[in-house]
Design a protein that fits this description.
Elements: H1 2-21, H2 39-42, H3 47-60, H4 68-75, H5 93-129, H6 132-139, H7 150-156, E1 163-165, E2 168-176, E3 180-189, E4 192-202, E5 216-226, E6 229-238
Length: 239
């Protein structure tokens, strides 16, 4: 009877420890070969973080990476033992299901990112066309606000060339025209989208007639991206 009680307590402890992991965000894939992942484990992660988990799972199977940075990172791990050929790696049923979960979630997040870029391009096209009615209807934005420096930002930036890291995106151009230093930027932080036009003072070239006052100012246009729609929220002027 004591043996049965001990077995019951051990089983209960195992179940409790397993369930306690559900809902916790993963930081690596050390358990991905032994435990089925749940959607809750990765629901708050970005594309980059999920890609890291996927690579971590592969690395623990000895996957030989072609990317030099990824290869160098895992080469520093004592547990990493790369195979000679990736096609020789065999994945268990647990691993295959976890890989599918990670890849499916990546596709969802990539789809959301594409929808955001499509909204930004649509907004840019309407600003360039000066379509006041559609801008107001679709984006809650009215032309003529605060000198509309947002036009200048959209002219300078290439919306297909945004650098992404986790839940943030950035595209930025700095120009020194010999008179003023101007900055044009698009900053994305999760569902907060910001266009920024900044004046950062006089040119680094110098001038025969220096200004008594150096102009510094920022025009910040804040949007939200929710329910697959881009909506204007407010303008902040500083300086």
């Amino acid at each position: 009877m004591i043996d049965n009680l001990m077995k019951y307590l051990i089983a209960l402890l195992f179940i409790t420890s397993t369930l306690s992991g559900h809902g916790q965000t993963l930081t690596d894939c050390s358990s991905c070969s032994k435990q089925f992942l749940k959607a809750d484990h990765i629901k708050d992660l970005s594309i980059d973080e999920i890609r890291y988990l996927t690579n971590d799972l592969f690395a623990r199977k000895g996957y030989a990476f072609q990317d030099a940075d990824i290869d160098a990172y895992y080469a520093s791990k004592e547990w990493y033992k790369p195979v000679n050929a990736n096609y020789t790696i065999e994945y268990s049923a647990i691993e295959n299901q976890n890989i599918k979960l990670l890849q499916d979630r990546t596709k969802v997040l990539q789809g959301q990112r594409k929808l955001l870029i499509a909204e930004l391009k649509k907004f840019k096209a309407l600003v360039e066309a000066g379509n006041q009615q559609q801008l107001k209807t679709q984006f809650n934005y009215s032309l003529g606000q605060k000198d509309d420096f947002i036009k200048n930002v959209l002219d300078e930036l290439f919306l297909d060339d945004i650098h992404w890291f986790k839940k943030e995106g950035l595209s930025s151009v700095t120009k020194d025209n010999g008179d003023m230093v101007k900055v044009y930027a698009l900053k994305i932080n999760d569902d907060r989208i910001v266009f920024e036009f900044g004046l950062q003072g006089g040119s680094s070239l110098g001038t025969l007639y220096p200004r008594e006052q150096v102009t510094e100012a920022s025009y910040i246009y804040i949007f939200s991206f929710k329910n697959q729609k881009l909506r204007f929220e407010e303008i902040i002027v500083a300086g």
